[in-house]
């Protein structure tokens, strides 16, 4: 890869939507990319649509944990390596499935994930901020929103 010149043309994106990603494995992968000549990498998370083929509602806690894990990867990586994070929101679990987790039901999850990234974590203050922004009285993280 180093000799091909590709690292000067592109930036790799590391995808993982799990609630318990292998943080150490991701840090090691970033180091491998750096040794190959890539100066920057991107992360890809999901705020909806990556947990089941027939999900109709979004479980915010799963996606929040994913983003908190990515924050751990970022904190354990060289300071200048992360170019950004793409928050994906899948409409289909795969190309052969029906639509799932439409955007309106996932807006609270998107708001929580964005605020967690912006604030470097999740706290009661972040929760209250999301509730205020969305005009909600009780944001439910570990159960499905009604």
Jot down its keywords.
globular; HEXDC-like; 146 residues; hexosaminidase activity; GH; 3-stranded parallel β-sheet; 13% strand; alpha/beta; HEXDC Hexosaminidase; 39% helix
Output the number of helix runs.
4
Query: Are there runs of 5+ residues with pLDDT below 50, and where?
Result: none
Instruction: Give the helix proportion (percent range).
Output: 25-40%
Average pLDDT score: 93
Structural class: alpha/beta
| Proportion in β-strands | 5-15%
Please outline the major beta sheet: 3 strands, parallel
Radius of gyration: 17 Å
The first-to-last residue Cα distance is: 49 Å
Shape, please? globular
SSE run? EHEHEHH
InterPro entries: GH (IPR017853), HEXDC-like (IPR038901)
GO molecular function: hexosaminidase activity
Protein name: HEXDC Hexosaminidase
Organism: Menura novaehollandiae (superb lyrebird)
Write up what this structure looks like:
It contains four helices and three strands, in the order βαβαβαα. With 146 residues, it is of the alpha/beta class. The chain has a three-stranded parallel beta sheet. Strand 1, helix 1 (23-35) and strand 2 form a beta-alpha-beta unit. The mean pLDDT is 93.
List the helices and strands and how they pair.
Blueprint: E1 13-15, H1 23-35, E2 41-48, H2 60-75, E3 82-89, H3 103-119, H4 124-134
Parallel strand pairs: 1-2, 2-3
